[in-house]
Amino acid sequence: MPLLTLLRKVERTILVVLFLTMVALFFGSVLMREFGGTMASRFAWIEEAVRLMNLFLVFLALGLALERGKHVGITNLRDKLPEGARRWLLRGIDTVGLLFSLYVAWLGVQMVQFVLKSGQTSPTLGIPMGLIYLAPVIGFLLLALRYGLSLFGLIDRFTAQEAAE
Amino acid sequence: MIFLIVLLAVVLLLAGFEMLLVLGVPALAYKEIFYAKLPDPAIVQKIVGGIDHTTLLAIPFFIFAANLMGAGQIAAQLVNVVKALVGHTRGGIGHVVVGGSMAFGSVSGSAPATVAAMGRMVYPEMRRAGYSDKFSLGLLVASAETSLLIPPSITLIVYGWMTGTSISQLFAGGLAVGIVLGLAFALFVWLEAGKGGVTREPRLPWSERLCAIWQAKWALGMPVIILGGIYSGIITPTEAAAVSVVYAIVIEAVILRSLTWKDLFAITERSAINTAIIFVLLAMGGLISFFVTLAQVPNGIIGMLDQVDAGWITFLMVANVCFFIAGMFIDPNSAMLILVPPLFPVAQSLGIDPVHFGMIVTLNISLGMITPPFGLDIFVASSTLGKPVAQIIAGVWPFVVVNILVLLLITYVPQISLFVPKLIFG
Amino acid sequence: QEFVAKIGHLESTAQSRHVHLEKVAELVKERTEGAVELQIFPQGQLGNQRQMNEGVQLGTIEGTVAPAAFLGGFNPAVSILDIPYLIPEDAAEAQALRDGPFGQALLATFADKGMVALTLWPNGKKQFSSNKPLDDLAAFADQKFRVMDSSILLEQFNALGASAIALPFGELYTSLQTGVVDGEENPLDTIKNMKFYEVQENVVISDHGAMEDVVLFNPMFWESLPVEYQDVIKGAFTEVIPELTAHKAAAVEEALQVIKDSGTNVRVAGPEERAELRELTWGPASEAYVAMAGDTGKALLAAYEEATAK
Ligand code: NA
Ligand code: NA
Q1: How far is A124 from chain C (nearest CA, A)?
Q2: Verdict on whether the full-model pTM lies above 0.95
Q3: How many domains would you assign to chain B?
Q4: Per the UniProt record, which residue ranges are transmembrane (chain B) (predicted)?
Q5: Chain A contacts of B54, Cβ < 8 Å?
Q6: ipTM field
Q7: C140-186, pLDDT tens digit by residue?
Q8: How far is the CA of C9 from the centre of ligand 2 (A)?
Q9: Which of C79, C49, C86 is closest to C65 using CA atoms?
Q10: Full domain range(s) for residue B282
């Protein structure tokens, strides 16, 4: 599926750029404080920016993590079940995961709308605070997509574990 | 009703649902049943609220740095130095895990960050030295607990603020209690190492030791930067985490050329995924803590204590049990915010020293980090080492027992907590 | 009971805000014969202040008592309170300003922000502390001070030639100890409670920053209350203000003693120094304020000038 391949590439690139930017910003703020004199005051926004970027980092990685079988869970009993029962259980997990992720994403959309309407802005950057709730919206949609693809057998997230490492 | 929701969580857990569903689905059910009138989007607010803290940022950065050091040469070089120095002793690398976690944990102040940073370095080496998989994992996860006790410690600062206790005195007490806990783990290592199976390295002449140190000169810059940077007041622990990433990239990719830019891309991505796996659980934990707070459970416990007119011995036992149970199911830092306000006045009325009570609380918070099912350090080890959660739990429980013994000792021998503060402050 | 309100705040249980919230809860329970229960959740149990403010708008919680400094993102107009020396030194004059047209206009700016602002609660004045000498205003130059997230407070330190550094509150004690930053600004009782005096050499009592709390309720909840209950709640909140002020003053007095006893050098800034500090900071701080709060801000500033001109 070329679309899915493209999506993965976009997700991975965003994660890498976000993470490296977070590192660079924090490092930069240390340098500014040590060597920048009063210029350091102009960089007080960095703490807030990195905290917000971390929210996006966390939620945007949820889908990839699921696809690669990385999310933690206690799978001993599940894996001991006979093949037929196990397959049904896995479908059950995918279904619950799909519904849960979609529901949380939908609540996230409401939260984004509500906070944007209230006009709340972030204290130092001044950006609309509603945008931070876009992070869980996108993240849980990406997660829902993977649960859905797994449910319909389009990806195999249960044996992908070793291959991805 | 509560029973059914707990049952649901247990069923999901045993059926092998992802932990985020094990925590999230029952929380949604609880909300719909008990707080139907609460606006639903609040769920998303609490999920985000669980991870929207600057001090948590040390975790992703230290995970990132540890992955870089593990994939490159820094970790191996550091381990070589340690092996050259103490590899011949009984316990060897096992003691290094305890000591290293105490040193790293003292400055990072974050148990999960300590597990992430130490794990990739020392776990393979422990296995190579012949320690069992379970013991290695258990020791790694448990040793990180000392980071909340050994100063500086945000946990102690928060306790000091909540209760009006001197932070310097708490730090002094925390140092003593942290060392006692570390020694208990070291004793456990010493016993384990005597069982056979664990090999010792030959004792090296000093010329070879110095050679190992020289070879690791770039790698040794890492602890120097982290410990030195924090204690000299150039950086905060959170910033130290970010600086350690920059240092690791420069050393591995530019100076030693042990990582290509393509490797760097892959490691960054993997670190992001490791972070997400842990933080999504913290996020779900934020949701659960919110409902536990609303339920005002501690008030009921205090009422019960009043009725039975408990003395300090009973009271501290009840407090420990409350913290233990809370620590199993919610993020222990939230447990502290919920439990300390009702329990502390009772402790005071029973004449318990605030520093002593602070040690009991902090030791419980540390313990909560490693108790299943919600044990953040277990998840961090699972995610960063790629080990199944069940395997880590199997390794951790003997350490939980050791920890409980230490907790009882600290609880009923107040002198241990108060000795150092009295020595310093009179 | 017919009405239950969850009210969250950031302070610990021994501090003035919590003590008097409990008092208000008691008064309200008594006067409504148990029909209205205010449940008080201290020390950020319900989340940080941003989340509590948002929770009040959303209806997750019914109320919060928020320091004005944490409300700028929700209602930029309220940041006027961040301007140094805005609130008069004299307690009676200060209360008259809160009760008068300026105070009422300020509370009214919350109406279209999805919050009912009931009243302002005084919560002391900020002072400076540092590990470097603070002998006069010139000594502030090149020192590093930790500030809360506020562009007005940044301007305050800029005007003194100092750097303003953003650090999380939880990391502040250690950062002062190791020297990541030289100093900070907080009321004396906070300096005592957070034990900053253990790691600070010098304190200057300048009373430069007012710590005003805004009592906020969720509009839906507030409208659902019968008018008589609304009056009872509002009455209780305003009634305890003198007691709150006295409690705070006693706490500050005790804190001052503790800080002095610890060997920290405490200096009281004289009237000339305060006037000079006000002179230095007023311009840049009020410009930063108007840049944030626009026409509403200009109008409030005008109302303030009118109220204090007399
Ligand atoms: Na520590
Ligand atoms: Na736990």
Answers
A1: 6
A2: no
A3: 1
A4: 55-76, 135-161, 167-191, 212-234, 240-260, 272-292, 312-330, 350-370, 390-413
A5: 47, 50-51
A6: 0.91
A7: 999 999 998 788 888 899 999 999 998 888 789 989 998 999 999 99
A8: 27
A9: C49
A10: 16-27+34-425
